[in-house]
TrEMBL record:
Belongs to the nucleobase:cation symporter-2 (NCS2) (TC 2.A.40) family. Azg-like subfamily. Keywords: Membrane, Transmembrane, Transmembrane helix, Transport. This is Adenine permease. InterPro entries: Azg-like, NCS2. The chain crosses the membrane at residues 91-112, 118-141, 172-191, 203-227, 239-258, 265-282, 319-340, 369-391, 462-488, 500-516. The keyword Secreted does not apply. Residues 1-27, 39-62 are annotated as: Disordered. Coiled coil: none annotated. PANTHER family: XANTHINE/URACIL PERMEASE C887.17-RELATED, XANTHINE_URACIL PERMEASE C887.17-RELATED. It is found in: Endomembrane system. GO terms for molecular function: purine nucleobase transmembrane transporter activity. It holds the Pfam family Xan_ur_permease.
Amino acid sequence: MSTHDPSEGGDGRSVADPHTATPEQLDTGTHDTARAELAAQQAHHRAGMIHEPGPAGGGAAVATEPRNAMDRFFGISSSGSSVPIELRAGLTTFLTMSYIIFVNPSVLGAAIDVGPTTFVQLLSVTCIAAMAGSLFMGLIARYPFAQAPGMGLNAFFAFTVVLGMGVEWQTALGAVFISGVLFVVLSVVGARKAIVQAIPMSLKLAITAGIGCFLALLGLRSAGIVVANEATLVGLGDLSAPTAWIAVFGLIVTAVLLQLKVKGAILWGILGSSLLAIVTRAEVYAGGADGALQAFPGFTDGIVGAPVWPGDLVGQLDIMGALGLGLLSVVFTFFFVDFFDATGTLTGLSQRAGYLDDKGDMPRAKTVFSMDGLAAMFGAFMGTSTTTAYVESASGIEEGGRTGLTATVVGLFFGLSLFIWPLAGAVPGAATAPALILIGALMMDGIRHVDWDQASEGVPAFLTIITMPLTFSIANGVSMGIIGYCAIKLLSGRAKDVSWPLYIVAALLLARYVFLDE
């Protein structure tokens, strides 16, 4: 059964879906995209090539014969990419998400205590989990999606489950492991793929845009431009603060480079902003007295730091304890949040990278989703909260990364960070903030194809987009969109436009919000 129907114009005439229509069907005057461009996009789509290249130099090229074994393994040439582009994309993604090396240990350290070496052990675990998760995705699934311990999920682990509920951290790790097993099982049997296939194209486009808004909010918050406000929830920060003007500098420079189509624009923007912060002694680095920001402290102990094996964390998970009746709700919450967070992230990134076919399906979906679950299982065994796909992977995609080589490079950099983690600290959040903001803007492109004249398509799409940043959760955005889509279609007499799996998912999501507190 079709998961969504073609749009209808205001005069009742059927308007072709721009993602599946022929050039002749598009000659309606209702879409501003050129017929030739869409025809070329569809041709590239069906040939397995890029149809929506990043503006920073990742443009599609005519497919050529593989040049070597690595090219053949990753499908670099057939994806219209090249090794230099993939390497640059991997470095960009790593720099954009490298903050997790220091943030994750800080968050988990509030709940896990294994002695004086707690922080460095958690830092090592973070790097190992991110390395393994990214390599799983790059070498097995062969997609450019990096993975690492997820923000939000680590806070839920530490502050809600361990500190709030009084659950032992070993037992909480067991709950994360079980949720990962469930991810793999549902991926292997095709349940996650079926859910993605059931989601209509309008929601898939909205998920991409919503992730863009979420990324932009992350960037604005990291830059101190958007801050918390008790009266209005959010407010404008101090634009004279170092974090703000470093970010504004990077935003303008990167945007200009993107407009000029300079290769590596996002990467150059990150490096340029970092250099400016170091040279001007701007106080944008964590680690100051009483949690205040400080100027770049330099490499007081060199750029090489000896790794510490996390012997007090590895294998400490308590699976049997997590299976206790009282913790089933915790297991389900871990499962629910990461299931829809990762599913939404992977779907949105795939749409942006041009992987979705003319039916909106993701190639090798079972493998991709299985790697997400495997990463969660491995991370829990090593001693960290849920490892999942990162929305910051969009930065590498915008640099032109289209194959698993991008994620592989990210994984190798995280492995290298075990030894040179002091060097990663030279990139402050204010330098990566502009990349997140600009990528968020670029990811809004697809919503022009949503039929906003039809409330049954436009309203759920809007709910998806707006809920993600406002609730700080991709999973909530996907959930609101699915529930809204099914409810509006059902109550407006268009129930047959929705596939039955989506109704089941909507019912489960609604039940979760009504009966289970997060």
